[in-house]
Amino acid sequence: MKILKKNQIVISVIALMLVAAGYLNYSSQLSQEVSSKEAQEQYDYAGIGDAKLVDSEEIVGEENTIKETMANSTQNKQNEEKDNQQNNTQNTVETNANEAQNDYFTSSRLERDKMYSEMLEAYQKILQNTNISEEQKSISSKEVANINNTKNAIMISENLIRTKGFEDVVIFVNDSSVSIVVKAQKLEQNQIAQIQNIISRELNAQISNINISTK
After folding, report:
1. Which residues neighbour 109 within 8 Å (Cβ) at sequence distance 6 or greater?
2. Cα separation of 191 and 189, whole Å?
3. In this structure, how many other beta carbons lie within 10 angstroms of the beta carbon of residue 170?
4. pLDDT tens digits for 157-184?
5. Nearest to residue 196, comparing CAs of 174, 167, 149, 164?
6. Contact yes or no for 179/169 (Cβ under 8 A)
7. Which of 11-15, 53-57, 173-177, 204-208 has the lowest mean pLDDT?
8. Around Cβ 157, how many Cβ atoms within 10 Å?
C-alpha cells in the first residue's frame, strides 16, 4: 500500500514537471513571437519612415525643378521682350530717319515750286498792269519764260538722275549755280560724272558751277 502511494506521488510530480515544462515552452514561444512581431513592426515602421523620407526628397527635387523651369521661362521671356524692344527701337529710329529723309526731299521740292509759283504770279501781275511800260512788260515776259524753262529743265534732270538708280534727288538753281542733293550714303566717281553730264546738258551749267551732295 505504501509502495502504491509512493508511485502515485512520483507520477504526480512527473505530471507537474511536464505541465511546467509545457508552460515554459509555450511562454518562450509566445515571447519569441511577440519579440519577432515587435521587431517586424519596428522594421516596417523604419521602412515606412525611410519611404516617406525618400518621397519627400523627390517632391522637393520636383518642386526645385519646376521652380527652375519657371524661372528659366520667365528669364527667356524677359530676354525676348528686351530684344523685341531693342529691335522695335532700332526699327523706329531707322523708320524715322527714312521718313526724315523723304520729308526733306518732298518739302524741299514743295518750297522750291512754291517760290517759282510766287515769282510767276508776281510777273503775271506786272503783265496785267496797264500802268507798266512795255519795256518792263517785255522783261517780265522773258522772266516768266526763263522760270518755266528752268522748272521744266529741273523736272527732266531729276527724272534722268533717278533713272541712274538713285532713290530721290532735288535740284536748286540760283542764277548760274546749280545745287543737287542726292539720296544716297555716298557717291562713286562715275555716278558724280553722270549727274554732272545731265545737269550741264539740261540746265546749261558749267561743271565748275555744279555742286553735288548726299543726304
Report:
1. 170
2. 5
3. 21
4. 999 999 999 999 999 999 889 999 999 9
5. 164
6. no
7. 53-57
8. 23
For residue 143, the tally of other CB atoms under 10 A from its CB is 15
Q: What are phi and psi of 214, to 5 degrees?
A: -120, 160
One DSSP character per residue, 167-204 reads S-EEEEEETTEEEEEE-SS---HHHHHHHHHHHHHHH-
What is d(CA 129, CA 127) in angstroms, rounded to the nearest whole number?
6
Spatial separation of the C-alpha atoms in residues 104 and 214, rounded to whole Å: 12
Phi-psi region of 31 (alpha: psi -120 to 50; beta: other; left: phi over 0): alpha
Alpha-carbon gap, residue 123 to 143, rounded angstroms: 8
DSSP state of 130: T
Please state the pTM of the whole predicted model: 0.55
Q: What domains does the chain contain, in order, with CATH numbers?
A: 118-214 (1.10.287.4300)
Please answer whether residues 133 and 147 qualify as being in contact, where contact means their C-beta atoms are separated by less than 8 angstroms. no
Backbone angles phi, psi at 159, to 5 degrees: -65, -40
Q: Which residues of 173-209 are buried (b: 16+ CB within 10 A; e: fewer)?
A: beeeebebbbbbeebeeebeebbbebbbebbebeeee
C-alpha of 76 from chain center: 13
